[in-house]
Description:
With 113 residues, the chain is mostly helical. It is built from 4 helices and no strands.
Amino acid sequence: MDPVRRRLEVEREHALARLAGLTDDFGAVVAASRDTNADDEHDPEGATIAFERSQVAALVGLARAHLGEIDDALARVDSGAYGVCEDCGGPIGEGRLEARPAARRCLGCAQRR
């Protein structure tokens, strides 16, 4: 198997595991909020529960976005466009791809954004 594809697939497996864990965490926070006073405004714990729910929901969104980036990178591998900057058409440096396997842009173009 192509080492780039394998690396992206491993990254995808990690992203899926993270998403599953965060989804479980979100479910636990929601379940905990059901077991507490429903009046968040007057319950001293209400603000904490609302904050935790919001924070976990944001992390779930980030994990989903990262998974989408990995899927897009796998599509670029299939099309032969992986490692090519979407802005300037030049190569994306190996160091950048090592650090960010789903990178769409070379470092120069990414810095200009």
